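Subject: two folds for Thursday's group meeting

Dear M.,

Sorry for the delay on this. The cluster queue was jammed most of the week, so I only got both jobs back this morning. I'm pasting them in the order they finished. Each block is the input sequence followed by the predicted structure tokens. Could you check whether the formatting survives your parser before we put anything on slides? The first protein is the one we discussed after the seminar.
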Amino acid sequence: MPENRIFGDAKRLRALVEKARGLGPIHTAVVHAVDAVTLSGAIEAAREHLIVPILVGPEAKIRAAAKSANFDLAKYQFVNTEHSDAAAAKAVAMARRGEVQAIMKGSLHTDELMHAVVDETLGLQTARRISHVFVAEVPGYPRLMFITDAAINVYPTLEDKRDIVQNAIELAQALGVATPKIAVLSAVETVSTKIKSTLDAAALCKMADRGQIIGGILDGPLAFDDAMSEEVAKTKGIVSPVAGKPDILVVPDLDAGNMLAKQFEYISHATLAGIVAGARIPIILTGRADKTASRLASSAIALLLVRHGERIAGKAIR
């Protein structure tokens, strides 16, 4: 499909794909790719030179799905496993050995994949808490919006939120936002002992002041209208370097984040991509309802994150 038809008005996500396309594809384990939707996303990302798919799962089922959708898989590598659990474990093992640089979720539950990722002995955890970041192109908003965490951490603690914020900052930097502005959201903009998210927001801002969070400009607690409108913030007497121009929205919990992201998508007609950060490698969480633009952008984000990490590591060595 022509790229302008795939992305429509999502020009910033399209630009990420264009930027990533010239960086060389990353080997990506596509976990339990037994349906046409997963295969289509992997094949499109391969055509755009974003990934080299390695199809991990029951080979007979993958080939049957490809045949029903008239996909040619002759050029792709297979790693045969018995079922989805084994596919997740195999993909994680491949990542630990350095055989793949990213993982793409296929036709299995997120919990099933993440169970293998967070395994204490055989998983891909680092010292940092793993978290998910939606990258949204919202019509009418002048920059990409990062929303976190709306898919992994259900009721994050303050320590979890510190990592969630740091993961999002580093992802934004990998995508070209040098010093992202972060709005830590709550229902109100004043600190209240009755609302835990306001206490967490205030603590996160002070942690940033003390160097426990680096690379971004934080403000919070901010209600959603304060965060999105500088005029509203001024009306309420809020002086903020973030109000009206946030790059990252940090939500109190998964419920709030998931609803916010889907409101952007289904009411504001945003295009969403997303990635799991904080693990040894990026994990592309694609959903059954995701469109081609979302799948391509998510693959591009994974590629940009990998190459950004390589540049940082190279500088550290020098």
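Second protein, same layout:
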Amino acid sequence: MANNIKKLKDKVYENVYSDIIRGKYSVEDIITEKELIKKHNVSKSPVREALIELCNDKVLKSIPRMGYQITRVMPKELRDALELREMIELKVFESIKNSLDQDMINKLKEYNAETQKIKSDHDVLIHWNRNIGFHLLLCSFYNNSWMYDTLKSILNFFTRSAPQYYAKIWDKDNEVKELYDNSHKLFIQNLEDENFNKCEEILKKDIEAIKSIIFM
């Protein structure tokens, strides 16, 4: 019985989280237990547990006697997280650039080739997850679990901000979207040519592109 409730709770959590990231709720919307019970056809217990966990993860906040709202991600929080992300990724690249072998480069190429297959998909969560997966793959070559886990935590934080900021670019033909479409390919090309200064420039521009999204 307990395992069944946990499975239902996990399912509700993932569905609500997915709806939030895909922008199906705005930061002004009130999400209620009653609404989720009806939507997911489950009892109150797994819904309540899922909502508690979403609050613990700072995805939602409880509004007494009303329901739940998406926790608004403020630009200052994003700037601070972005600063740490840039420090980590540039440090990682500086440390591994001379030891990246062809097998590692091939893994980046294969990953990017898979990303290009979804290029026409306008689902922000799919694009964002493929984007952060590339950066995590590069970081994994450093073989430092603390660095990797910290970067992953930062990128997960940015995932929560996706519907508030990142989603703005996908229906627009602009420089930011073009950058996200092409930066990984250019990075790999320059990596194969051992043009590490250009790689660093591309990596930094890719990381900092979200600044344009926040303030566009």
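Two things I noticed about the second structure. The chain has two domains: 2-70, 75-215. The longest strand covers residues 60-63.

Cheers,
T.
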